[in-house]
Design goal:
Low-confidence stretches: none
Mean pLDDT: 91
Oligomer: single chain
Distance between the termini: 62 Å
Structural class: alpha/beta
Number of strands: 9
Length: 289
């Protein structure tokens, strides 16, 4: 079977199976060969790779990955797509489709049972309404993932890739970049999909570091510090960190002084290294239980 990444091929498959697109599941199928190739390149796809794909659609990207990778597990929530995928992927015995909700799948167990324990790569055109939960699931849980290359809404990619002092820099930027090196892999305007969505898309590459770039003593305190710092963007750090709830204003002043951070600065100006330093100071001040 030839590639499915053309408007003609996609239309034929959809019509043949009388498939109805679901708005609630965010179904928009990519119809651009160049973007598919950029995704494969961004994922550094090679023989021996074990891939998890979320939302394979009719199998457009799945097929191309199956031609190269050792194994591909495609997780699709829409049961009406399963017979289509069985047909479009019938010549690839290294691809398995699982009809489940990715947010309810025990991915760590899945990797052990079906992918020889990994390591794995997450490569997908993600449903926009659950983009952040899926990405953070793979980063925060004990999943041996090396690369996450995903199509997301442009604004979300901008936030994940943003640096300090920019309008897009926020808690999501820090969370993702705490774990990964980020890169913009490709841009995908809305006309590259059927049906055409109301937003433009971007493929972002998140390359997970083997070791944390900025060591923190407590990830819980680190992320609480980040969340509080961005909670009210117009507030200075001295005031914003008051929402932590376990330090007095005087202690927050002391923590900022010890971290060599001006109390009048705002959260969006701090680098991840500064957040790490600050959270380590705060952690040292937390009363032991």
């Amino acid at each position: 079977m030839d590639r499915l990444s053309s408007h003609k091929a996609t239309k034929e498959v959809v019509q043949k199976h009388n498939f109805k697109f679901s708005k609630s599941l965010g179904q928009n199928f990519l119809i651009d060969d160049n973007v598919i190739d950029r995704i494969l390149s961004g994922a550094r796809l090679s023989e021996g790779d074990k891939i998890i794909e979320v939302g394979p659609g009719i199998g457009t990207l799945t097929r191309e990955m199956g031609k190269v990778a050792d194994q591909v597990i495609a997780i699709e929530i829409d049961k009406t797509l399963i017979p289509i995928l069985e047909e479009t992927l019938s010549d690839l015995d290294n691809v398995e489709v699982i009809n489940q909700d990715i947010l309810k799948v025990g991915v760590e167990e899945l990797v052990k049972e079906k992918l020889s324990g990994g390591p794995v790569k997450l490569v997908a055109n993600l449903p926009y309404y659950i983009t952040t939960p899926i990405v953070m699931k793979f980063l925060e849980e004990n999943i041996p993932v090396t690369d996450i290359v995903v199509m997301v809404q442009k604004e979300v990619a901008d936030r994940m890739n943003a640096g300090p002092g920019t309008k897009d820099y926020g808690a999501l930027s820090v969370a993702v970049q705490y774990y990964c090196d980020t890169e913009i892999v490709a841009k995908a305007p809305r006309h590259m999909f059927v049906p055409q969505p109301n937003v433009d898309s971007t493929v972002i590459g998140l390359h997970v570091r083997e070791e944390r770039k900025y060591p923190v003593d407590s990830e819980e305190i680190f992320f609480k510090t980040v969340k509080a710092s961005f909670g009210q963007r117009r507030k200075t750090l001295l005031n914003a960190l008051g929402t932590l709830g376990f330090l007095t204003k005087e202690q927050i002043k002391e923590a900022l002084l010890n971290a060599n951070i001006d109390e009048k600065r705002r959260g969006e100006t701090l680098t991840i290294e500064e957040f790490a330093t600050l959270s380590n100071v705060i952690n040292s001040m937390v009363p032991s239980k």
